[in-house]
Prior knowledge:
- The protein is built from 20 helices and 8 strands.
- With 419 residues, it is an alpha/beta fold.
- The protein folds into 3 domains: 25-219, 2-Layer Sandwich (Nucleotidyltransferase, domain 5), CATH 3.30.420; 228-320, HRDC domain (DNA polymerase, domain 1); 334-416, HRDC domain (DNA polymerase, domain 1).
- Residues 1-18 have low confidence and may be disordered.
- GO terms for molecular function: 3'-5' exonuclease activity; nucleic acid binding; nucleotide binding.
Amino acid sequence: xxxxxxxxxxxxxxxxxxxxxxxxxxxxxxxxxxxxxxxxxxxxxxxxxxxxxxxxxxxxxxxxxxxxxxxxxxxxxxxxxxxxxxxxxxxxxxxxxxxxxxxxxxxxxxxxxxxxxxxxxxxxxxxxxxxxxxxxxxxxxxxxxxxxxxxxxxxxxxxxxxxxxxxxxxxxxxxxxxxxxxxxxxxxxxxxxxxxxxxxxxxxxxxxxxxxxxxxxxxxxxxxxxxxxxxxxxxxxxxxxxxxxxxxxxxxxxxxxxxxxxxxxxxxxxxxxxxxxxxxxxxxxxxxxxxxxxxxxxxxxxxxxxxxxxxxxxxxxxxxxxxxxxxxxxxxxxxxxxxxxxxxxxxxxxxxxxxxxxxxxxxxxxxxxxxxxxxxxxxxxxxxxxxxxxxxxxxxxxxxxxxxxxxxxxxxxxxxxxx
Length: 419
């Protein structure tokens, strides 16, 4: 690639690399200049034609407004392909992005942490046939840091400026410095893909990566969470089912309001405020308004909504109250295994020890060798008979890929047969 725009007279930092290690070159501007935002059908058609005429994989990224808006909608889509350059697509005013989808066809998409972006891209009709996930590839290759900036610096020698990933990308018009940041996110993705592919081939992990990328695609959009209110920060501080019922009612009221206003729920009412309200159990609206956060102007106007939700939860019949945990959630917390089932604790320890050694041997994170949840389930409820074929079938049923099954089947068979 041509040399990117260098920093102006950079001053070495105190933690600058040693003299024999070249300092990373800052990426400060797109190599072809900052392209205009594509926000009209005509501009989209022109860029789609350029994509179709381009060659090789397509770098793709998306920016959301997490923490500001309700849901995970894409507010900017960045693409780059050799021969087509970079496109910054604003999906908000564009109802139909099928021209982009058709232009890419079956070509490989290159994304970093693909599972984060694929759902919001699918919502606007952009779905890949093949992917190369540079974050996942970096994990399989055993790189110590797998964030985009860290991997780019390690393998390509460039430094990416951080700072706008958590911005409110629903802002219009988007500031130029944000657009520069967004364009740079796809600037070197294809180069990074090639470097990682070479590293994986050198380590004999190309087939592992192919299976992992296929699994990312096959996973599809995440299923709706059961009882999402249970993910409220601080919920474990609630003591009884009545309090859980009040929290659920308050969470549902907040979620409904957030959805209607298209605001992130936490900006409507923080989790900590909901838990505090449940614990205080105010008997009047005035008492609720005495609590922190609820004294603010916005929540004073909504006091009837919040107090009504608490009252509904308080009035639930005993049979309608939520359980302390959902039935069928899987094994209990590992900290309780030694008391509840010492043999299961022994099996899990053996499995974890063997997997840690195997992961170290192949230089990859143990969680990428096999899902920790699948390991816990196997140790808590071993299959019968406890032979390699049955263990392998159990692993496949739990979503393990063939390369994972081949590597772990024998050691896990040994683990589940521990007394």
